[in-house]
Amino acid sequence: MVLLYISCGVILINCSFYLYFSRFSFFKEPPDKTNVSFPVSVIVCAKNEGKSLQKHIPLWLNQTYPKFQLVLINDASVDDTLEIFNHFAQQDSRIKVVDVKNNESFWGNKKYALTLGIKAAAHQHLIFTDADCAPASPHWIQLMANKFSEKNQLVLGYGGYYKEKGLLNKLIRFETVLTALQYFSYALNGNPYMGVGRNLAYTTSLYYENKGFMSHIKIPSGDDDLFVNEAANASNTTICISPEAYTYSAPKYTFKDWVQQKKRHYTTSKYYKFKHKFSLGLFHLATILFWVFASLALTTTYWQIALGIIAFRLLFQYFVYGKAAQRLKEKDLILLIPLLEIFLIFIQLHIFISNKESSNIKWK
User: Fold this and answer.
1) Which among 46, 42, 72, 364 is positioned nearest to 221, based on CA atoms?
2) Of 33, 60, 31, 66, nearest to 46 (Cα)?
């Protein structure tokens, strides 16, 4: 009976989080009243991304927004990134190239390169994406810019991954949906804690008010989530979830590469505000404990009751996660949610343990 009580407690915590996340799953984004037209600087930091840039620079330049500047930052690349930047800059006056040489104090630090790029930006409103990201439509800049206002100084967007065959691709996309479900829900509930650099926007005023990346400049990763965690609040942050404003990247093709990428991302979470670390940690712990105690409860004489409450938890999860996956154009993941969650738990445990053993993680 004790196992049953514990299972009920864990499921109650799980469902409390799902109720919190439902804020995004069933959120009705109000239509933009007008299309803004103030000038915008789109900022892209690239390190050895020559192949991606040939494909994506034309997509960024092809945006319908009436007035924007494209700031291309070459972060000490050793391939043909700088040559590609200069080639496009000669053809389009909207491009500003920033060539960053390695600095002894900030060797290989993306934040140093981004700082120089932001200082070179001509406009107050900044939109960020990565060199390997493609906008979902020519209206990406317009839709992101529409979310700016006198009050809203920071806009969180969605950065997804292309659909491909295989379990790894589904895991990557499921983890991306789960992360987005969390940071969008927290923001809508007035408690923003992170964003992704693949699709993020904020003003130079907000950047300088928070002294840029100075509080975490020595940390290799976190130019997106650590800045948002520090600068965002209930009154200055909004979200943009129009499908035409999504960005898409090519996913990793091996578990080793993906795990290495996630190691870099997860190392920043320990620098979040305590309230965010606590709530996110509780969510992950409750997810793990559900599968442990639910399995044990099914071996008791009360297995029928246990089965009923487990089914309730899974249905509630399907209800919330499924709606979020549908909204983020990832409907093919819905039926696989329990399986993908179990796989993700083992991956996260591996990353957590291995990160404890090594802290030497760079962005590239």
Assistant:
1) 364
2) 60
| Those residues with Cβ within 8 angstroms of residue 364's Cβ, 6 or more apart along the chain or in another chain | 47, 48, 108, 110
**Per-residue confidence band for 233, with pLDDT thresholds at 50, 70 and 90:** very high
pLDDT in tens, 297-319: 888 888 888 899 999 999 999 99
d(CA 167, CA 152): 39
The residue ranges of every structural domain in the chain are 2-24+274-356, 38-172+190-254
For the question of whether the overall pTM of this predicted structure is more than 0.90, the answer is: yes
Beta carbons of 46 and 70 less than 8 angstroms apart: no
- How far apart are the C-alpha atoms of 325 and 182, rounded to whole Å? 12
Give the integer Cα–Cα distance in Å for 361 and 364. Answer: 9
The 10 Å CB-count burial string (b at 16+, else e) for 346-363 is ebbeebeeebeeeeebeb
pLDDT confidence of 210, banded at 50, 70, 90?
very high
Residue range 38-172+190-254, CATH number? 3.90.550.10
Indicate the angle between helix axes 303-327 and 2-25, nearest 10 degrees.
20
